[in-house]
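Can anyone check this?
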Amino acid sequence: MSWDADFRRYAQVKSTIKKSTPSRAGWAPQFSRTGIMKPTRKRGSTANPEKDQSVQKLTVADLLKIMARLRGPGGCPWDREQSPNTLKKYLIEEAYEALEAIEAGTAEALKEELGDLLLQIVFLSRIAEEKGQFSFLDVVHTLAEKLIRRHPHVFPPTDENSARVQAKTPREVVRVWGAVKASEGKYAKRKSLLDGLPLALPALERARRISERVARVGFDWPDIKGVWKKVLEELAELKKAGRGSSPERAEEELGDLFFALVNWARFRRISPEEALRKANRRFMFRFREVEKELRRRGKTPQTSTLEEMDHIWNENKQKSRRQKIYRGSGD
């Protein structure tokens, strides 16, 4: 199956669970012979099922039954042929779509995207359960235990000999979390502070995590002035490399400049990944505005001069800064 066909099929399949949820006024779910809830007309219900307390909603248990049915004999051929490797791209995609919904500030969009992200977790858990590895309930149990264990300031250990942990500020909470995490099995075996950083993280986010970890043990600048001095130093080295003939040298210096800027952002408590993502969105919004204005004039970017497009760009840039209309525009 090609990527395009695969993606289109996935888009259809991921909506299966949503389609099983009652969406019309006056519908309440009941169990069918398969054990899966299905909508059935209920008398006396209100016009809005979201506000009707008498309308029973589908549960996590129903969700797990739906996935088992999709993966089982006579289920969906596409779902049945999936594996953890084929689902990786969708897991990343859904995480980013949820992130976009958060930035857009739309509750309805966020609700939908969180469901799509949950689908991936349920899907992967079902595959693991079929292999006898673990189930979705095991995932939930492991998470709940971890949250309790890593918050001893909220959930005191039952051992009477254990001292009560105090953490009254976010900084103290991070310290407690790190101490508990370091004592856990897989973390206790690590030989470096940098072990365990996911290779799949976006480069800017990974750079932030690297610098954050080493900063915890004092390998850091004393203040932001030192970081900015480093940024200017790396910029000068990039300019020098840019005048040379070695692409490899220029690439190296560009990477060093990025890393220095990531550290400056860390001192300012700015997410470099989010800052660049928002810059991408602003650029795309403004360029689309340029295209829109050119169409109004009966022109295209191909038939326009750089000066003309630049003028429209600057006008829209000032307008968007005054009105903040690019916020939530998305891709």
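Reply from J.R.: I decoded it. Residues 150-189 form one domain.
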